[in-house]
Write a structure and sequence with these properties.
3 helices, elongated, 53% helix, 79 residues, mainly alpha
């Protein structure tokens, strides 16, 4: 669980300004790492379009990047 200070609700603009203030406080040598972190975060929380998902799924099926349906549940305690 991430540590989060209790704060009153902020607007999107206020969050953006706070993020930018934090970024501006970082030494330049850390910026490439921050960029990679932000890009990875964005990719993990945004959904691909239906067309992109279908294209990726079709590619995976054609290149045999598949697994048996029953193997998808391996290691998952569904009880």
């Amino acid at each position: 669980m991430l540590y989060r200070k209790e704060r009153p609700m902020m607007t999107t603009t206020a969050y953006r300004a706070q993020v930018l203030r934090e970024v501006n406080e970082l030494p330049d040598e850390y910026l490439p790492y921050l960029l990679q972190l932000v890009q990875t975060f964005r990719d993990s929380v945004t959904l691909k379009s239906a067309a992109e998902s279908l294209k990726q799924g079709w590619h995976e099926a054609q290149t045999q990047q598949i697994m048996p349906l029953d193997a998808l549940w391996d290691g998952i305690d569904a009880t």
